[in-house]
Amino acid sequence: MEQELTQAVNKIHQDGALGVVAADRQGLCLAARGTGTSSAASFVSLLAQRAKSLSSTAESPVVVIEADHFNVLISQQSDVTTAIWKQA
């Protein structure tokens, strides 16, 4: 799984994302590229978990943080939370 995750994170970053972070349920960084630093892993994992607790459906919501020059998209699938920094 580690190699597949690394390949996926690399591809997202190479396809134009400013940064990418993948974290486990405990907030430990599994991979980070670009502006997505390992220090953000616990924060994005917690945001995804809190957003899911607000939802009444089984699907995980996508959290979007909008800033002046970039957006961050945060989603949790299975045991991995992914955050993608994109140019606004």
Automatic annotation (TrEMBL):
Signal peptide: none annotated. One of its GO terms (molecular function) is guanyl-nucleotide exchange factor activity. It comes from the Eukaryota. GO terms for cellular component: lysosome; Ragulator complex. One of its GO terms (biological process) is positive regulation of TORC1 signaling. Its main location: cytoplasm. It is found in: Cytoplasm; Lysosome. Pfam families: LAMTOR5. Keywords: Cytoplasm, Lysosome. The keyword Cell membrane does not apply. SUPFAM superfamilies: Roadblock/LC7 domain (SSF103196). InterPro entries: LAMTOR5. Belongs to the LAMTOR5 family. PANTHER family: RAGULATOR COMPLEX PROTEIN LAMTOR5 (PTHR13342:SF2). This is Late endosomal/lysosomal adaptor and MAPK and MTOR activator 5.
